[in-house]
Amino acid sequence: MKNHAELSETFNKDEQRVNWHDETLWWVRQKRDKASHLIPDWELLRETASQIKHNVLSNLGNYLEQFEQNAIKNGITVHWAADAKEHNEIVHGLLKKHGITQMVKSKSMLTEECHLNHYLEEQGINVVDSDLGELIVQLAKEPPSHIVLPCIHKKKEEIGDIFHEHLGSAKGEANPQILTETARIHLRNTFLSRRAALTGVNFAVAETGEFVVCTNEGNADMGAHLSDIHIASMGIEKLIPQRKHLSVFLRLLTRSATGQPITTYSSHFKKPRPGQEMHIVLVDNGRSVQLGREDFRNSLKCIRCGACMNTCPVYRRSGGHSYHTAVAGPIGSILAPNLDMKQYSDLPFASTLCGSCSNVCPVKIDIHTQLYKWRQVIVKAGYSDKKKTLAMHGMAKTLASPTAYRLAGKAGRWVIKHTPFAVSNPLNPWYKQREMPEAPKESFGEWYKKNRG
Amino acid sequence: MQLTLFAKQRGSPSDSEGGVSKIARRQVINKTNMTSRDRILADVRRNQPPLVAAPDITAWENKAHSAEVLLQTFATVAGNVGGKVVLVDNVDDIKSHLNIPEGGRVLTTLPELLDVADDAALFAGNAPHDLANVDLAILRAEFGVAENSALWLTEKLMGTRVLPFICQHLAFVVNAKDIVPDMHAAYVRTAGTDHGFAAFIAGPSKTADIEQSLVLGAHGPRSLVIFVVLG
Amino acid sequence: MLQICKMKVGLFIPCYVDQFYPKAAIATLELLEKLGVEVDYPAQQTCCGQPMANSGYEHLTGGCNELFVDNFAGYDYVVSPSGSCALHIKEHLHSHDKEEAATGIRNKIYELTEFLTDVLKVEKLDARFPHRVGLHQSCHGQRGLKLAQMTELTAEPYSKPGSLLNMVDGVELVTLNRADECCGFGGTFCVAEEAVSAKMGKDRVADHEKNGAEYITAADLSCLMHMEGILKRQKSNVKVIHIAEILNGVKETVA
């Protein structure tokens, strides 16, 4: 399995494409800036959202029970899944019970996390992703590369080829307008013929037992309102205490995500329509463990806006797939090690710790601080390179001793020997695209001794 | 899902902290037989941090705004998100702005418009799929939100839940006096009301999934007109 | 300007500045002395420990930390021409037996430009640098020490290094397309993630070049070293220079 560095090296083989990817996402970041700067109290709004989420995490047990009670009262069936496997089995069980073999799905990063599509396909269930971006990556047999913009890594010409192959659009057609229309016609038939629809959940309200799904396309609603059975999958951290708190989150979510003032549709599902079944699957899958990690629990405040990805200078130049996990980018890099520390031990290191992610986060998750802390945890757990550990022990010893440090030699010698970037040879990664600094005649320490000593 | 009695009885987070009770001990003993529900709740309660209060958001809810600015903002933002605002003196005036193609299927929930459109209520009991060929739906919105041009509709105002999503074109009717400043005011306004389904809708259906180019009419309406009744 | 006599400043010169960029360290020393500060350079100093800590080996920095506390506990202020190293000390310096002294240092360590604006309250400088200058906002100084307003936030703009550069005769600050994007150095990131690191550096340098900078300056030499490596490989005419050298009044011949 390739790590982030290897995958991003591959991504960087085509520099023009990296430029395009970077510019496209930077444009989204700029839209976010424009939208957020229009709200004078933006920083206070972030702080308010953060505090609400802290309250949620500190009282999650009660909110979950309260939500369950109210949802049941509303006529919704509530299921609990301890892990991905149980979630997938619950969904499959519901479909099986109704003899349903085809399902339409709107965007749910949780189902990506659980690899639901793959599981259902193995059980003989046909799943169609209805979000345009998700449909594109599904047809391309790829995972989404971004939680809000699933096919941001694909060029329109490539999408045109995919649609030509799978949906019969004209060969060479790459006009987004025409491609979208092609998908619209294709998916309209899908919506009209599927008895089961699965949606994600953006927010669930403990006070009322309702849940809110936000889309721009209207695909969640098309699926849900035309289906006999609506299944909504949600992570247990998606709860908020009261309905009025939606105001804070709906103001923040889309401005942070795409720079829109709100998504086109913010749908509040409270009761099934007459004759319809509505199910909610509450999924833990490691969240309760993360809740117990004091340094990392507040990653569960995340509302999946993707702003940290759009602003991340590394993400923009490495692409979502380089993170080899369902949720990419900075937030993914602090969530994934909780699920599998070994497999994702590279991700907290896929950052310069520049801190831009923490600044754009609408719920004020200290993402870059958590990246730093995960590094410590991962090294202590033994998931770091042995050679690096040896080098670090040597470095620690020298830097703890001024004598050893000075004995190591005159200007530049120690640094040249011990810092990985300073060796001037073609095998050194530093030297591939950069010259090394020139060592001066004397170090500052030596100069000081002569001139001020 | 089974709701086991002992799990239901467990109340506040402090219960799990000082859990010397019989209930807690039974939970440990029965861990292998516990339902996922019980296990998740037990794990959450064991791991959640000490209770911190939710912030008071009333200050956000009590901001004053002038009505004229609200309408202006509402119209500007609606335009920005791909919608169009038309000011009318009364609901009857809407008819002069409608351009319904020959044989087009138009549904409405407004009694004043029944001479130009069919009553959406007539189809409320039918399968929602019957609405797949609706060209235009004209629906009353309960109120609009200036900061994002979203309109609030409960399912009662939709006729059928799927209608505002499945129609090819959509028109909303809202009173000028029913435009609130922001989402805080919006939720104050909906407090205490009940619905099975409701939505904020801002602009026509859209996507920018292909290279961030904006396309209107992804799955839902290709266009949205909002008639703001001044009277 | 406030003349603070008897103030004793311990000068912390990070290891790579000591060994690769002594000019920046000399400029820092001279500038502080010119401003009437008594500066001392503890000879036993080595490093802040960040190279280990950022690699996940903070648990190995104990010896480095104790040495730092021994070297700097006795000063009124600790000043360093590196935002990144200053931030690391501010956030992570602890001591086994001398925690009080460590806390003291965490509270009195300053990056050079913030020391000039916040403590010395410098309002004018006797320096001339008639060039178009691009200011690179190094991330740890920018988002960690808050040396300048961050573009992500909805808040009043300010810039401590920017305001100081504007006191230098002849400096023309260029406007960048991305005012505070990371240069991609990131410590061991620069080799562990070579492809992305180098690409970030190339893009950052290009922004300065496109907007007509003759010099790229910063309050952090690690970023400048990274960008200099790229500029030299590209045989660019754009040079890097530490902000202390500009503020100290660099001689044309030296530049």
UniProtKB/TrEMBL annotation, chain A:
GO biological process: lactate metabolic process
Domain of life the protein comes from: Bacteria
Pfam families tied to this protein: Fer4_8, LUD_dom, LutB_C
Annotated coiled-coil segments of the chain: none
Molecular function (Gene Ontology), one example: metal ion binding
Keywords noted in UniProt: 4Fe-4S, Electron transport, Iron, Iron-sulfur, Metal-binding, Repeat, Transport
Domain 4Fe-4S ferredoxin-type: 292-322
UniProt-listed PANTHER family: LACTATE UTILIZATION PROTEIN B
Protein name in the entry: 4Fe-4S ferredoxin
